[in-house]
Design the sequence.
């Protein structure tokens, strides 16, 4: 084996790959099963964007809190939420992360630092400020991270949060996962500034744009901003430019995309393929090692689906519990 | 006018904070001859409702006050006069009677209702009334406060200097308990006596306060001139543990009311403001913990933990025992457990006998102290 | 020990005592310190009506002025509540609900349920409510019905300083999100308030006046109108019970039922607009649960279905009066 040229140990590279692959297979499987009509409601898939969630989350511990959004499965898995419980939740089962009461858009596990996926776009940014404020006041060096898409970056909550975080000098990082589409609307049309770096500058905080399909680019940029926040340097913005392999939600015919766009992206901009190419070319990880992870991940997802299908449904008693701590 | 033959019936002042009262009902008609102690009317204050007993004998010639109306303390409610007094003289008496006005809060002459003593066991609230005569110290029971002596303190103060305090964990005193058992509470009362400069006193204790008084008599015999034990703890095992648990655990009016009814022979005495005042007390930080500690130390396993009968009998202290015949908290049979005591069981009264039959209890205590 | 205290000072004292007791309690809001970053006095205002005046001097940076960004700081308070703090956020007027409601009803209110019981959100949002300040349509509303409608939120609206202190302390200690509504016209009102800390449990109505002929249910400022009406009616021999709900969610319907079962008459007074109000809610529950106890049709006394007007003469007509309450009681007595 050659000398490791990457900023992560071999073990960490294996962890990162396993996480990205888990997200990918989780979403690919949901795509298939949703198409078969086995999943209630609707789901927003993260496939294609894995390098962003994992590249950032490799820096975080359970004390760091993230506020996610409607496209949250990737963030959850990367933050350490149990995959089987997530699958059961999406199937509406009582064994799910939220006892079947939240569904795809509301998976949370505060003990893992996952403040919740969120059905309201932009709502997570103030919550992440709250996480940063708690860290600041409680005197631990945790941080808050807000994940929004390019679409939600136009919400007042997001913009107010940039200012609040700057005024209070909060340890908060605003990640804009720019996949080019706010639902069906192009970022080029809906965001008036040319660069999110400019938007950040307008609020008095530093901004960085990276290629979100490049795991190592995300990892390094996020690492610097996170270190800065932990050291009291204050908030910042990280834009990850990335690719959404599927539609806004499952069932989206995606007619707003260009002819052949998805196929081209899968071929040339698949962050998993790019990661594999880097690490095998450098001779740090072998295809066999990565293939073995692929097999294990597929088995995990199969088991998660099987267990979710056979898990018990909530009962009438569950309808009225957990509205309040006490009432 | 022969005023000496005309006696006014006035709105009583039931201690401390009372400024006015509502005459709920007349219990006697004009033309009735009344004896001392007869129940003549019902009065309701913002604290409590109770029956007023006649302080003077006589023929009720006139009901001046109207049932349902509110009058200031010492207002003329009725006139007692013998038959040979003419109606004109009664009218003149009423005409000449100076109706008091409701005292203002910042009345410079008014003595402070309560004072605070910074003692070695913390801050204790107390009231003091009267100047002349022996020192009497009133000690309330579990969950009570100095207002439990509402109908006693002023009456006793006519011939004594009377102190009433809030025990630690109670009323407006510190909620820190130096000790949760009778000895701990006795230590606190002795510390109070040190602070206010009382060397020795006639102790009057109600319920757990009786147990405290008796413990003091044993721990510091020089400082106890006599004991008056009213519905006292420490004279037997039995205690209504459902009452104790209910009192400790109730957080709402609806929960507390049925518990408090056990305290009185007449359940009407459990007024809204009595319940409200107790809830206000129970909500204060530290009270819940204090009550739980006291209840665990004093009444574990559904019975009283400390029996003092032998100790008290061994003491050379003059002891009066008073009990309400229908006490639902501590059975009246406990009254008979002391051999050399003056024992008085009062009919028609429950655990709060000093409130329900105040004038009888006051007379007994006065006699006991004087004798 | 008891001494009289104004509603406003009782709120201040509750916050002060809880901040002293619990280091995780923080407070934020627009101008709650006042003057942050300005060249003049730090702690210049202590809130727009001075309610939090003096707390910055005692507790320092645990009180934070915010930019005028209700969405951001109410959301931050909620987020911080899920991360180990016990924040109090001041929404200056509940009328500003519109610019931060998502954070309250889609976020704070829903976390616990939608996360399957995993989240606790011990946040208190204080807000001024109610009319009488000649502050017109956007600073005078009684929007309690809107927030009471939302499962997951608790709603408190005290009528006096004693209740304000005890209920605010309970709100801060409570592990659910609480919207604490302060009627600005009661700020100067004084009653006896103990110096010690105490918490009044939620869902426990107060019987402000006992009576046997009719039950008047009210909250906030309307408790005073109801009591005034009851005193006036007493002169005519009509003896009204006045129930102060104190908390609207949870709501103590048992006390209302118990009272109406003995009086047979119900009058609900609400400063809110009439449709889908607390008054209509209480009336609906009483008619559904104890219909046979009613001797007369329940009466609702509310503001009209209009915005709050500015001109004093109009605003005085808008807010339910003691006379209107008394008329409604008489109407129930006629049958």
Sequence:
């Amino acid at each position: 084996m050659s000398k490791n040229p990457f900023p992560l140990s071999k073990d960490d590279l294996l962890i990162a790959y396993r996480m990205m692959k888990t997200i990918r297979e989780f979403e690919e499987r949901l795509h298939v099963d949703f198409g078969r009509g086995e999943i209630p409601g609707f789901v927003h898939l993260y496939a294609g964007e894995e390098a962003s969630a994992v590249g950032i989350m490799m820096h975080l511990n359970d004390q760091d809190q993230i506020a996610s959004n409607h496209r949250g499965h990737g963030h959850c898995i990367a933050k350490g939420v149990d995959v089987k419980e997530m699958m059961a939740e999406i199937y509406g089962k009582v064994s799910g992360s939220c006892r079947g009461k939240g569904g795809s858009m509301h998976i949370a596990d505060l003990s893992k630092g996952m403040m919740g996926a969120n059905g309201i776009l932009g709502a997570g940014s103030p919550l992440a400020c709250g996480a940063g404020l708690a860290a600041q006041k409680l005197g631990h060096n945790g941080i808050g991270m807000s994940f929004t898409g390019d679409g939600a970056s136009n919400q007042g909550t997001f913009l107010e949060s940039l200012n609040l975080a700057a005024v209070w000098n909060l340890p908060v990082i605003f990640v804009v996962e720019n996949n080019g589409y706010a639902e069906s609307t192009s970022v080029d049309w809906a965001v008036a500034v040319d660069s999110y770096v400019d938007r950040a500058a307008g609020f008095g905080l530093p901004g960085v744009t990276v290629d979100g399909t490049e795991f190592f680019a995300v990892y390094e940029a996020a690492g610097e901003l996170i270190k800065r926040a932990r050291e009291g340097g204050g908030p910042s913005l990280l834009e990850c430019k990335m690719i959404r392999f599927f539609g806004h939600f499952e069932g989206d015919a995606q007619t707003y995309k260009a002819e052949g766009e998805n196929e081209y992206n899968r071929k040339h901009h698949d962050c998993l393929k790019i990661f594999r190419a880097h690490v095998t070319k450098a001779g740090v990880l072998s295809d066999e090692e990565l293939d073995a992870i692929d097999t294990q991940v597929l088995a995990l997802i199969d088991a998660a689906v099987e267990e979710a299908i056979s898990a018990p449904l909530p009962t009438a008693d569950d309808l009225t519990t957990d509205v309040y701590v006490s009432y | 006018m022969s005023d000496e033959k005309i006696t006014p019936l006035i709105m009583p002042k039931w201690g401390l904070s009372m400024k006015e009262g509502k005459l709920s009902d007349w219990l006697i008609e004009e033309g009735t001859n009344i004896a001392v102690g007869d129940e003549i009317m019902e009065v309701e204050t913002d604290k409590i409702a109770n029956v007023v007993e006649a302080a003077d004998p006589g023929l009720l010639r006139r009901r001046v006050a109207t049932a349902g109306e509110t009058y200031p303390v010492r207002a003329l409610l009725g006139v007692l006069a013998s038959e040979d007094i003419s109606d004109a003289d009664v009218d003149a008496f009423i005409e000449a009677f100076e109706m008091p006005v409701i005292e203002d809060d910042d009345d410079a002459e008014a003595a402070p209702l309560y004072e605070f003593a910074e003692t070695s066991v913390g801050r204790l609230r107390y009231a003091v009334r009267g100047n002349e005569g022996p020192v009497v110290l009133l000690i309330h029971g579990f969950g009570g406060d100095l207002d439990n002596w509402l109908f006693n303190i002023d009456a006793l103060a006519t011939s004594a200097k009377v102190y009433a305090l809030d025990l630690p964990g109670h009323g407006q005193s510190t909620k820190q308990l130096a000790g949760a058992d009778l000895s701990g509470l006795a230590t606190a009362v002795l510390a109070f006596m040190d602070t206010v400069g009382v060397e020795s006193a006639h102790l009057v204790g109600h319920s757990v306060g009786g147990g405290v008084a008796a413990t003091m008599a044993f721990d510091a015999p020089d400082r106890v001139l006599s004991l008056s034990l009213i519905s006292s703890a420490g004279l037997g095992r039995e205690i209504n543990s459902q009452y104790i648990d209910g009192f400790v655990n109730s957080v709402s009016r609806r929960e507390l009311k049925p518990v408090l009814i056990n305290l009185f022979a007449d359940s009407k005495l459990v007024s809204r403001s009595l319940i409200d005042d107790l809830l206000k007390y129970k909500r204060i930080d530290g009270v819940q913990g204090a009550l739980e500690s006291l209840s665990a130390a004093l009444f574990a396993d559904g019975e009283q933990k400390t029996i003092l009968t032998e100790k008290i009998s061994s003491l050379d202290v003059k002891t009066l025992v008073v009990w309400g015949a229908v006490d639902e908290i501590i059975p009246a049979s406990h009254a008979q457990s002391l051999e050399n005591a003056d024992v008085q069981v009062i009919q028609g009264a429950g655990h709060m006998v000093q409130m329900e039959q105040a004038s009888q209890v006051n007379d007994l205590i006065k006699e006991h102290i004087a004798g | 020990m008891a001494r009289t205290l104004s509603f406003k000072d009782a709120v201040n004292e509750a916050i002060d005592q809880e901040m002293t007791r619990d280091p995780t309690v923080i407070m934020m809001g627009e101008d709650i310190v006042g003057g942050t970053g300005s060249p003049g006095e730090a702690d210049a205002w202590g809130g727009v009506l001075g309610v939090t005046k003096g707390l910055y001097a005692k507790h320092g940076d645990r009180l934070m002025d915010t930019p005028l960004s209700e969405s951001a700081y109410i959301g931050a308070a909620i987020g911080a509540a899920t991360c180990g703090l016990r924040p109090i956020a001041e929404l200056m007027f509940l009328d500003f609900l519109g610019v931060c409601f998502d954070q309250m009803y889609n976020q704070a209110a829903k976390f616990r349920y939608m996360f399957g019981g995993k989240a606790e959100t011990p946040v208190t949002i204080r807000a001024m409510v109610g009319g009488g300040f000649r502050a017109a349509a956007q600073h005078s509303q009684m929007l309690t019905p809107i927030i009471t409608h939302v499962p997951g939120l608790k709603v408190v609206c005290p009528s006096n300083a004693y209740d304000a202190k005890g209920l605010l302390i309970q709100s801060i200690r409570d592990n659910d999100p609480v919207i604490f509504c302060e009627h600005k016209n009661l700020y100067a009102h004084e009653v006896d308030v103990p110096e010690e800390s105490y918490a009044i449990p939620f869902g426990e109505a107060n019987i402000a006046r006992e009576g046997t002929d009719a039950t008047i249910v009210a909250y906030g400022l309307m408790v005073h109108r109801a009591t005034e009406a009851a005193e006036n009616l007493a002169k005519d021999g009509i003896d009204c019970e006045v129930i102060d709900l104190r908390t609207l969610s949870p709501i103590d319907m048992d006390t209302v039922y118990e009272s109406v079962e003995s009086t047979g008459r119900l009058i609900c007074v609400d400063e809110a607009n009439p449709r889908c109000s607390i008054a209509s809610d209480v009336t609906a529950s009483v008619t559904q649960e104890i219909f046979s106890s009613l001797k007369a049709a329940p009466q609702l006394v509310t503001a009209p279905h209009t915005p709050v007007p500015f001109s004093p003469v109009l605003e005085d007509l808008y807010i339910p009066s003691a006379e209107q309450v008394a008329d409604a009681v008489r109407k129930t007595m006629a049958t």
